[in-house]
Amino acid sequence: MRVLPRFVSALLCVATVIHGQLLTAAPPPLVPPNQKPTTPPGPNEIRIGLLIPMDNQEIVRETGFVRSAGSIPIAIENVRQKHMLDAYNFTFYWKHDECDEAKAAGYTVEFIEQYQVHGILGPTCSGPAIQAGTIAAYYNVPIYFWGMVTAHALSEVGRFPTAMSLTADSLELAEAFMEIMRTYKWDRFAFIYMESVRQKCKYIRDDLNIVLEGASNTDINSAYSKKLENSSGEYVQKILEQAKSKARSRLRIGNSNLWPISVFAVCFDVDVDRRNFFLEVHDTNMDTEDYVYIMLDTRAYGFGQRAMKNGVVDSESFDPSYA
After folding, report:
1. Which of 32, 44, 105, 136 could bond 143 through an S-S bridge, CB–CB 3.0 to 4.6 Å?
2. Concatenated DSSP letters for 259-316?
3. Where is the signal peptide (predicted)?
């Protein structure tokens, strides 16, 4: 059974908001990024703008155009099967914002004013999504976020009344983490993270601090917080040694104190950094029952899933250097 990716879900949301039905069984046209329409949209035409990366190697594996654009005919097929827009045709225009805030803002204005789009899919990173969402709110144009967008700020309806995100936001992840802390009656933890162009961990850090300030979390403390500059070597081992005593809680059941546990909340935007970090955890003998590691990040895949062949990861869909 095929599981539709978030990109398809975003397009289905556009169809739901616009209301109507699809006319033709032919695939919708994908217009090259530099080719602008010369006429206003017709009465039966729905124009969609795509903000999606193409060349940024840090993000194309998850949400790049080459892997994700194939979702468009799948979504159109679903719209047709549901008889949602039988009287309308779609035209898709795209721009490669590369998860750059300035490009995302400029292309959003261009889509709305020059292309006269009815809705926008993307950007796929939090910072650019905030920029584009603000502009879309001004023009009252629907905009849908997917991929690596996790910023909780985008859920503020008053600020982003025309926006919808199809991924769990970072505040929800932070609240889930606090619930785990309360369940096991742990009172402190260390937060170790790395940032990249994907920006997931940046927003998780910010929202974790917001949740910590909540009234229900007064007995839980972030005893140590560190942004890593790299993910391996003696540098990481020293940080682990510094953090382990400060992150030590006592696992409590009822009124009984059991053995001390060092709790780490970790966040890595990039798989290879996560792997390197846990290799250092192993080398410092901090992978025993005395330590707990909770990963506060989502995989945030769009259409770039890792395929399995005969029980092993397909090398064509997975960078073997991460293995």
Report:
1. 136
2. EEEEEEEEE-SSHHHHHHHHHHHHHTT--STTEEEEE------SS-PPPEETTEE-GG
3. 1-20
When pLDDT is averaged across residues 40-62 and rounded to a whole number, the result is: 85
Query: Facing residues of 192 across strands?
Result: 226, 266
Instruction: Give the CA distances from residue 135 to residues 32, 48, 112, 174, in Å, rounded to whole numbers and listed in that order.
Output: 23, 16, 9, 28
Which one of 29-33, 130-134, 299-303 scores highest in mean pLDDT?
130-134
Nearest to 90 by CA among 25, 162, 9: 25
pTM of the model: 0.72
| Distance in angstroms (rounded) separating the CA atoms of residues 65 and 62 | 10
Calculate the alpha carbon distances from 11 to 74, 143, 231 in Å.
Answer: 10, 10, 37
Instruction: Pull the structure tokens for residue 43.
Output: 């009465």
Sort residue 261 into left (φ over 0), alpha (ψ -120 to 50) or beta.
beta
Strand partners, 48: 92, 119
Which of the four pLDDT bands, split at 50, 70 and 90, describes residue 168?
confident
Q: Are 292 and 178 in contact (CB under 8 A)?
A: no
In the chain, the domains with their CATH numbers are: 45-165 (3.40.50.2300), 170-303 (3.40.50.2300)
Q: Which among 208, 168, 176 has a CA at the least distance from the CA of 191?
A: 208
> Do β-strands 312-313 and 308-309 pair in parallel, antiparallel, or remain unpaired?
antiparallel
Q: What is the pLDDT of residues 182-227, one digit of tens each?
A: 888 888 999 999 987 777 888 888 889 888 887 566 788 898 999 9
